[in-house]
Amino acid sequence: MLDLPWTTVRGLHALKALANEGSPMTLGAIARAARVPAARASRLLHALKDAGLVEASGRRWTLARRPDEITLLRALEALGPDSPRPERCHADWATCADRGGCPIAPLCRQAHERLVELFAARTLADLHVEAPALF
Questions:
Q1: Nearest CA to 119 among 84, 88, 80, 82?
Q2: What are the start-end ranges of the H helices in 51-121?
Q3: Distance of alpha carbon 87 from alpha carbon 36, whole angstroms
């Protein structure tokens, strides 16, 4: 139902770091917080900047709005371009090519709508859970 690309999740880590810091951060600090190379962090930040979620001032980055004004849905939309799906069911209403004839399509649509509502109702300020260590 929810198939977020790895880079999208790392972008959320970057946004969370900016929200927690509350002051401008360098690219290197954001890359460390998001656990990605600086080049990847730069691409993520530029996508977020294009969406109006972050700003750059010199070599430092900040949120363009307060954390409680940036919904998770908006962040996901900015970070997660749709990628081609393999030829199998992911129970994902948003990407289903066969929803007109699928027996579980009504349930998938309901799940999709609830998920969108959940992400639209939450902001960066709601992200309190610390990410577990990778190793």
A1: 80
A2: 72-79, 105-121
A3: 30
Write out the chain's pLDDT in tens, 135 residues.
456 787 888 898 999 999 999 899 999 999 999 999 999 999 999 999 999 999 999 999 999 999 999 998 899 889 875 554 445 556 666 666 666 666 667 777 788 889 889 989 999 888 865 555 544
Spatial distance between the Cα atoms of 19 and 126, rounded to a whole number of angstroms: 10
Query: Which domains can be identified in the chain, with CATH numbers?
Result: 6-126 (1.10.10.10)
Sign of CA dihedral 12, 65, 17, 34: positive
pTM of the model: 0.73
